Amino acid sequence: MAASVFDSPLFARLFDTGETGRLFSDTAAIRAMLLVEGALAKVQGSLGVIPEISAAAIHRASLEIQIDPGALAAPTGENGVCVPGLVAAFRQEMQAPEHTQYVHWGATSQDIIDTGLMLRLRQALLLAETDLRAILGTLGRAAGEHASLPMPARTWGQIATPTSWGAVIAAFGAPLADALEELPALRQGALWVSLSGAAGTASALGPQAGETRAALAGALGLVDPGRSWHTDRTPILRIADWQGRVTAALGHIGQTLLGLTASGVEEVSLGAVGASSTMPQKQNPVGPSALVALGHQFTGLRAGLQAAAAHQHQRDGAAWFAEWMMVPQLTLTCAAALGQANRLTASLGPQPIRMHATLDEGIGLVHAEALSFALTDRMPRPEAQQVTKRLCRDAQEKRVPLAELARADYPDLPPDLFDPARQMGEAPAMARAFAERVAKL
Fold first, then answer.
1. Which of 233, 126, 130, 248 is nearest to 187 (CA)?
2. Does the CA dihedral 29-35-41-46 come out positive or negative?
3. Whether 119 contacts 220, CB under 8 Å
4. pLDDT (tens digit, 9 = 90+) per residue, 255-283?
5. Cα(353)–Cα(249) distance, rounded to whole angstroms?
6. Positive or negative torsion for Cα 315, 71, 325, 128
7. Which residue intervals of the chain bear CATH 1.10.40?
8. Is 306 left (phi over 0), alpha (psi -120 to 50) or beta?
9. Burial of 380 by CB count in 10 Å (0-12 exposed, 13-18 middle, 19+ buried)?
10. Distance separating alpha carbons of residues 40 and 220, to the nearest angstrom
11. Which of 340, 384, 407, 421 is deepest in the core (most CB within 10 A)?
């Protein structure tokens, strides 16, 4: 087994990270850092911080020069960061010492690495948004179509009261719609440029440090935080929090579908997937299982990221190293979950006959709550609950439907009291409201 399922040809379809996977390679990291170095030089040239002719040469070279990640291994091992080796390799490739002396002017390694990371995270969020919109489109259409399809709701793993398949789908999608709507604020509050020098004081950047940082943010399409964030990892945590809530929502879908496709339940079909190596009758819930597993991975990594967010003094190597280990994995975990969910939701199929059979099973105990409230027309609520509990026990002991026993004692009960389609409360309306919300996103 590969060290990471995300780098494994064997698991490339089970834990497929799509285009996001390409953002977290050494080549992509170097490309992003070179873009930052080039943009920094261009901005500094326009402000007169460095000669404009040198700035133009550096910027042009940053777009053209390719640097082999393997060539940076030795200096990275010695220095703990790749930027010194990267800058040295870049200067050597340019072969223009009169210009290359101005490369990386006043910046520190953390400025370049953190800003390069933000460029890649911006792309990752854009790809996540694309998947979210596709998933929500599928869920929105299904919620509207099945808004009034009755099925049993379950609490604590047990049948509770009637709901609708559309309402279940709406519950799947609501937190994903929330996450989609939060993206503009997340981008503004997290996609920050970093340019504050060795100790966060911008001392080597000169009197135009603030102006340079703002111009660099504008050139790269990032946000100027107006300060150093070398030890304030809030932007990273905000993105991880958003990814975590998305992954948790997808995990809920996975967990619920594991229950709804279990033997003896089978109220939902996942399509033609999940063959067993030895049992011809099996259709294993592969997609839901992957979503739950990815959720487990995210939870463990997220705890590590929280611990790594506590940096020491003005910059901290150990905490920063730990962040490098976890941020890519967290982002790829979320991406893989979104990709899996996109495929899974497109293949979901409700099984109305099984849903109806489950509502009829249990001798109608799914209607116990409705019966207890109906009886309050003729007795106090506590007494109505006691009567209903007694009738439920009788139904279980005698294997006689609850409706039959209840009507024997109270023949004037409402005619639709034991009709699941009439006992779904706001479920159909919730499903239609979700469908309408998605249509406007």
1. 126
2. negative
3. yes
4. 999 999 998 899 999 986 654 444 444 47
5. 28
6. positive
7. 356-424
8. alpha
9. exposed
10. 9
11. 340
Cβ of 400: how many Cβ atoms within 10 Å? 15
Half-sphere exposure at residue 75, Cβ-oriented, CA atoms within 13 angstroms: 14
Look up the pTM and report it: 0.92
Structure tokens belonging to residue 432: 């239609």
Read off the pLDDT of residues 305-333 as tens digits, 9 standing for 90 and up.
Answer: 999 989 989 888 888 999 999 999 999 99
pLDDT at 63 over 80: yes
The length of the chain, given as a count of residues: 441
pLDDT at res. 362: 65
CB 274 within 8 A of CB 283: yes
Distance of CA 39 to the CA centre of its chain: 30
What CATH superfamily is the domain 5-355?
Fumarase/aspartase (Central domain) (1.20.200.10)
| Distance separating alpha carbons of residues 231 and 316, to the nearest angstrom | 7
AA identity, residue 354: R
For residue 332, give both structure tokens: 């790829």
C-beta separation of 344 from 138 below 8 A: no
In the CATH scheme, what architecture does the domain 356-424 have? Orthogonal Bundle (1.10)
Phi then psi dihedrals of residue 161, to 5 deg: -135, 170
Whole-number Å distance between alpha carbons of 318 and 82: 15
Mean pLDDT across 59-67: 96
* Spatial separation of the C-alpha atoms in residues 100 and 111, rounded to whole Å: 18
Q: What is the 3-state secondary structure (H, E, C) of the chain?
A: CCCCHHHCCCCCCCCCCCCHHHHCCHHHHHHHHHHHHHHHHHHHHHCCCCCHHHHHHHHHHHHHCCCCHHHHHHHHHHHCCCHHHHHHHHHHHHCCHHHHCCCCCCCCHHHHHHHHHHHHHHHHHHHHHHHHHHHHHHHHHHHHHCCCCEEEEEECCEEEEEEEHHHHHHHHHHHHHHHHHHHHHHHHHHCECCCCCCCCCCHHHCCCHHHHHHHHHHHHCCECCCCCCCCCCHHHHHHHHHHHHHHHHHHHHHHHHHHHCCCCCCCEECCCCCECCCCCCCECCHHHHHHHHHHHHHHHHHHHHHHHCCCCCCCCHHHHHHHHHHHHHHHHHHHHHHHHHHHHHHHCEECHHHHHHHHHCHHHHHHHHHHHHHHHHCCCHHHHHHHHHHHHHHHHHHCCCHHHHHHHHCCCCCCCCCCHHHCCCCHHHHHHHHHHHHHHC
Phi-psi region at 95: left, alpha or beta (left = phi > 0; alpha = psi -120 to 50): left
